[in-house]
Structures are given as structure tokens and as C-alpha cells.
Amino acid sequence: MVEIVEPNTxxxxxxxxxTIPLHLPPSSYALLAPIARGSxxxxxxxRLGGARVAVKKPVLSxxxxxxxxxxxxxxLCKLDHPGLAKLVAAHARPPNYMLFFQFYESRxxxxxxxxxxxxxxxxxxxxxxxxxxxxxxxLHNLGIVHRDVKPAxxxxxxxxxxxxxxxxxxxxxxxxxxxxVENWKSSGKPTGGFHKRNMVGTLxxxxxxxxxKDIQTEKSDVYSFGISINELLTGVVxxxxxxxxxxxxxxxxxxxxxxxxxAAVVSEGLRPILAHREAGAPSDLLSLIKRCWDPNPLHRPSxxxxxxxxxxxMEHVEKGSCPPSVSPSNQCQHGMMDLQYFKELNWFDQGExxxxxxxxxxxxxxxxxxxxxESHYHPTLSWGSFATCGRRETMEDTHFMLxxxxxxxDVHAFGIFDGHRGAAAAxxxxxxxxxxxxxxxYTCSPTDALIEAFTRTDEAFRDGLVLHRNSKRxxxxxxxxxxxxxxxxxxxxxxxxxxxxxxxxxxxxSGHPFPMSKDHVASCADExxxxxxxxxxxxxxVDTWRVGPAALQVTRSIGDDDLKPAVTARPEIxxxxxxxxxxxxxxxxxxxxxxxxxxxxxxxxxxxxxxxAMCSKRLATEAVERGSKDNITVVVVFLRPxxxxxxxx
Length: 649
Ligand SMILES: Nc1ncnc2c1ncn2[C@@H]1O[C@H](COP(=O)(O)OP(=O)(O)OP(=O)(O)O)[C@@H](O)[C@H]1O
Ligand SMILES: [Mn+2]
Ligand SMILES: [Mn+2]
What we know:
Elements: E1 29-37, E2 41-48, E3 51-58, H1 63-78, E4 87-93, E5 96-102, H2 109-114, H3 122-141, E6 144-145, E7 154-156, E8 162-164, E9 171-172, H4 173-176, H5 181-186, H6 196-203, H7 208-211, H8 219-234, H9 245-255, H10 258-267, H11 283-292, H12 303-320, H13 347-354, E10 382-388, E11 397-402, E12 411-420, H14 424-441, H15 446-470, E13 482-491, E14 494-500, E15 504-509, E16 512-515, H16 525-533, E17 538-541, E18 544-547, E19 558-559, E20 572-577, E21 582-588, H17 590-593, H18 598-606, H19 612-625, E22 632-638
Helix pairs in contact: 3-8, 3-12, 8-11, 13-14, 14-15
């Protein structure tokens, strides 16, 4: 565009380049109108040798500002990537200091979203995310951290491809440890007065470790990337439900002071509202965003992982979009619709499919009843359940109730599953385990059938994971979902409870709690020893004993591929004969038992209307009120006839 005149350096000689002219004759360029007044510079629409460019002219009021200009220029001279705003020239000699960039026609992403109210298709979102991811991957591989990733610094060209701009805060990772946040803020960030208004707007992209004034790493860029991509998907300014920027910022400023927002993000884990699945966002993209804004920088993926995952997601969206067989009325109107055909893995269905009923047609066979003689005592059952997400964002508990299983009037089964590291294992097990139980029930004793049902469910689930990982329907690395499980089986007057993990079942016998299971947690010495003996480390972490690198608290579970065989799915079985003094059975996930003792549970039911679903709900509600932070699932089974009018035994 413009000739390079040697020596091609800045006035100090610290910036050099073989391709970018670093000083320009005044006649070669013309600044036209200012297009943006940033906090630290003015950006002009300009011409350079006839071409349209954007000129960034920094405000230079101190020696520090000058140092900063030279640092930014040095860095820019080294960068060359299609996802980064391209420096085409600079003038780095007094009295003029200017950076000349290629001009990007379609404004920055913040304006595009909040001024033009642009609605990108999922394809466009994925393309931008992927291009941006690659640009950041390039920077991180050079050891550079951007430190100011946000939609206002993402420029769009005429094809709406993104170009990351504004290296005003970028630094080499190796120099980061020496920067305190105090320096960081004064290195050009607005701190008060006129700029106060923009401060919260900048805070919303900052990772908790920065807000906490802790060490920052390249993973802080990952956090900002996650917040920005979610903003792109939802179209709303983070922490508001508003699209238009001016309005949104007023709301933001009114809802939060700088301190309040900082405290909420750091201590309460506040995050923007995640984009909706219904809006067509693939769940894998949502889960990626959530991992990007994980409070722990170590749990956030690297840009190598992010780019790999985004590429796979894009391939799936492409493959899944608009198969020729769909009827014209279902044809996609615009990109957002494409994802109706993006088939998600449904783990409930997977459980059903992988545990097919094998003996269904053998109608002459009976489930277990032949194991037991007609007894003189017959429990009379009524049952109900209640499940709540509680204070958690997602529900990872599931349960099943199969009274009069296979039309046997004296055979009943109930189960609760409490998922961790995702809901997949719990969803799978709720469908698969009852089928395996039934399949083995025709030939094995209740105890053996329960053990088989647990271990086969576990194997089928882990096989399923491997299968889907190989066929690339799952691309999350190191994802090992699991669940704890408790199942009660009643055959005539015999009660069997199988348990693996920290769900719990108790009987109310003569008005007192009678435990039917033992919690399998690492704080139990026997369990801890067993796990260690089978080769998995158990460590005291923060407040309790935890298993393996995953830091699980439970020592038995379905799934948890990475901790097998030590964290076994083999249940412990407790059995008893029911008699007239057995009033009821309560089963629940640990969200209930965390805050209520066995005695509490029995006494709460004693003064609740004797209706099992209402008792379940009352228990869960009480647990939430007492501060349980977990998902809570409760199943209550009355074992004697009760009238709902009966309030006290
Ligand atoms: N190459 C370009 N083409 C088109 N517009 C640009 C270009 N570079 C910058 N802009 C516009 O100018 C704005 C400010 O640019 P930049 O972020 O580099 O400046 P800044 O002073 O560091 O701003 P900040 O307040 O974010 O620190 C951008 O958001 C964009 O709207
Ligand atoms: Mn900027
Ligand atoms: Mn800046």
C-alpha cells in the first residue's frame, strides 16, 4: 500500500517489521471522521494510499502511555492471523503516534448485536466462535494473553467473519505474574468519573480470578470467550434481559454496583443466563460455554480443546440439517431451525434401548413369588414421590416407581438415582435398571437379581459411552458421568434394598427409624480402605475425604468410568421381613439426608397428611428450607392402610 522506508523502526528502535511500514510521509494518509472514541484512543475512518483504513490514535498524556503504545506496536508487528485485526501500517515518531488497521465494514460485535439487533443463525454463531477460538489459540500458542476479549473488541468484516482487535491490554504470559490488578486497572482501564459508567460493562467479561485480584492466566481469556459467545447466542447484554445497549447498561448500572457484581460473580458463582436449548443452540455448545466460565480456571478448556469441539459441533450441525425427507412445512426458514434435526443423545432412550426386555413373552414365568410361601402378613401399599431441582441450576436426579411389577400384585420396585458430572448416568439408569431387574428376575433370587441389575446397568452405560465417543456423538474429553443408586424391591412380605452410594432408604418401624442402607462415602473407613486397596487414591480435600482425581465423595456408583473398578457399582443388599409394625419406607437422594436426620424425617411424616406424594413434597420442601443446596428426590411408600384424615399415628 505504502512503501517501506529504511530504517523501518519506531523512534526508539524497539519496534521493527519487514512487512509493515512504521513511519509514513504525511501525504500518504488522511484522517477523515472519528468513528469511535475509546477510553484510551480515538479511532478514525481514514485513507492510506487510497485504501480505506481505521486509524487508532492513542491518548498520550503520560510517559506510561508512550511505553504502552510501543508495547502494543511491538506485539502487533509479530502477529499475523486471519482472525486478528490486521495492522497495515503505523506511524511511531513524534509528534504523531498512530496505528493503521485494515478497515472492517460491519462494525464491532457489540454494536451489531445491540444497536442493529442482529439475530445470527446458529451457523453464524458457530463460525464466529470457531474463528475467534482459532485466533485465540494462535495467540495462546505464541504465549500471548489478550486480556480484553469482549464483543466490542471483535470486529466484523463484510462477510461477518470476526477479527479480534484491541491489543491495549495484551501481555506475554510469562510477564503476567508480575502484574497486580492495580496495575492492570491503571493500564488504561476507566477508573472513575466520566468513564465510571462503562466500568460495570467491562467487569461483566472479567473472570472471577481477576475480580478476586488473584493470579490470572490464559484461562481468563477462555472465561471472557464463554461470556461473549453466550451473549452472541442470546443477543442480550450479560446480566440483563435486554438487547438494546443503552437501556441494558442503565439496567446493569442500576442493578449492580461494581462491588455487588464482583461479589456475586466471585462468591455466589453468578453467571449470565445461558442460551435456551429451545432457541436451537446445540446442547454441546451450551455445555462448552458453561465449562468456559467455570469458576476454577483449571477446569476451563484450552483453546486447542475449544477449537476441536467447535469443529465437531459444526460438522454435526451440518450433517443434521434439513434432511431431504422432511416435509416442506418443516423446511428450515433460517439457520436457527436447522437444529431441530440435530439429534441430541437422549440418555433415557439410551437406557431403554440398551437394556431390552428379553423375557417379556415368557408370560408363564413368574417373578420371584415362588421363592416365598404365602405368608400370613400382607403389606398394603400406597406410594408417591416428589423431585426438585432445589437451588441447583440443573436436575441430575431421576427415579422410577414400578408397583405391581409385571402385573404381579405382590411385587413392587422403586428406585432413585443421583447423577454427578452430568445427568447422563442417572437418566440412563432410571430406564435400564428396572429392565435388567426384570430380565434376571425370572431366574435369580431377588438379591442376585438386584446385584445383576446394578452391575449390568453400569456396564451397559459405560459401553454406551465408549460407543458414542467412538462414533463422535460425544466429543467432550475426560467426561465420566456417574450416579448413585438405591432400589427397593418388595416381594410379598420381604423387603430388599440395594444401595450403591449415598442415597438412603429407611423404614419407620414401630414409629422409629430403621436404616435399610449404609452410605458409601469416602469418610467411611471401610469403604475408604476398600477403594485404596483397589488402586484409587483417597485424599482429604478441603472438608472431607475424596476419591481419585475426580474428587468424588461417594465410593460406589454406576458410571464413573475413570474410577472403575474401585468405585464399584456392586450394591450392598439389606433385607427384612415386613410386619404389622412397619409403617412406611422412605427413600431419598442425599439432598434430603444432608439436612434431615432419619428421626427428623419420621417425625415430619408423623404430622403430615398421610398421602405419600404430599409427604414426599413436604420432606423436600423442608430440606430446601433448611438450606439443602442439592437436587432432592423423595419416594414415600406406606406399608399399611392409611386414611388421609389420619394426621397422627
Ligand atoms: N479496524 C477497524 N475497522 C473498523 N472499526 C474499528 C477498527 N478498529 C477499531 N474500530 C472501532 O473502534 C472501536 C474502538 O477500538 P479499540 O477497541 O481498538 O480502541 P480502544 O480505545 O482500545 O477501546 P476500549 O475502550 O475498548 O479500550 C472498536 O470497538 C470499533 O468499533
Ligand atoms: Mn476496545
Ligand atoms: Mn482497549
